[in-house]
Amino acid sequence: MKIEVVGEHGSQLEVIGSSVGGGRIRICEIDGIRTDFSGEYNTIIVHNTDTPGHVAQVTTVLAQKNVNIAAMQLYRNTKGGYAVMILECDDRIPPDMVRWLSGLDGILKITSYNAEENV
């Protein structure tokens, strides 16, 4: 199923997902990039240029905010092109961290989802 998701601050994602049974889903694609994650965890999705340093910046800030990463996946359309980083976390994603990361060079868009707030 393909849907447009609009966040509370107006950010948009085009998402393709599939049902895996028992009320569970898998997110298969975001904004044209193939993915594979559940949405069951607190999640931060970072859209960035595929250049060195973005993974280190995001993971460093998560560590500083004491947010533990449960799973991390990296995707890109081409070398040096458009990339998507998906981090599923055990802990809540702080909004101030998302705002700070959004201001970094090469970060195109960030979407965060705190699962416990959407139950």
Automatic annotation (TrEMBL):
ACT domain ranges (all copies): 43-118
Superkingdom assignment: Bacteria
Alphabetized CDD domains for the sequence: ACT_LSD
Pfam families per UniProt: ACT (PF01842)
InterPro entries given in the database record: ACT-like_dom_sf, ACT_dom
Classification via SUPFAM superfamilies: ACT-like (SSF55021)
Name this polypeptide is given: ACT domain protein
Gene source species: Ruminococcus callidus ATCC 27760
